[in-house]
Amino acid sequence: MGQLRRLALDVLKPHDTPLLAFTEQLADVETVAGITSSLIELDQEVQNVKLTIEGEDLDYEAIEEAVGELGGTVHSVDQVSYGECVVEDRRTHQDG
């Protein structure tokens, strides 16, 4: 099996952990080489955040556990890249 290189996750997180601190703590997961967090939606109870995470061989279970320890939950896995390298999405004729 190839190595997990990139994940895009839709995460619900509480307000009490600021996005900067939330992201910094996830960056400390051993297999994470880099992470980008984007605030998608804000409501009274939670923040909906998109996480894009890259590394040489990501440990999804460790990332999901770290999100949970910070009070968040993975709502969905929106993008996954496996293999020797990350293949970027390209527009095709089918995309219209």
Structural summary, described in words:
The protein is of the alpha+beta class. The chain has a single domain (about 5-85), classed as MTH889-like domain (Alpha-Beta Plaits, 2-Layer Sandwich). The protein has two helices and four strands. It has a four-stranded antiparallel beta sheet with strand order 2-3-1-4, covered by helices on one side. Strand 2 (about 35-40) and strand 3 (about 45-55) form a beta hairpin. The N and C termini lie far apart (about 35 Å). The model has no long low-confidence stretch (mean pLDDT about 95).
- What is the total tally of β strands? 4
Shape: globular
Q: With helices defined by DSSP (H or I, 4 residues minimum), what is the helix count?
A: 2
Beta-strand percentage range? 35-45%
CATH architecture: 2-Layer Sandwich
The ordered string of helix (H) and strand (E) elements is EHEEHE
Give the full name of the CATH homologous superfamily: MTH889-like domain
**Cα-atom Rg, whole angstroms?**
14 Å
Query: In this structure, how is the largest beta sheet organized?
Result: 4 strands, antiparallel
Class by helix and strand content? alpha+beta
CATH fold call: Alpha-Beta Plaits
**Weakly predicted, low-confidence segments:** none
- Give the termini separation: 33 Å
Strand order of the largest sheet: 2-3-1-4
Number of domains: 1
Helix content: 10-25%
Give the mean pLDDT: 93
Instruction: Look at the structure and give the CATH class.
Output: Alpha Beta
Helix/strand layout:
Layout: E1 4-14, H1 19-27, E2 34-42, E3 46-54, H2 60-69, E4 73-82
Antiparallel strand pairs: 1-3, 1-4, 2-3
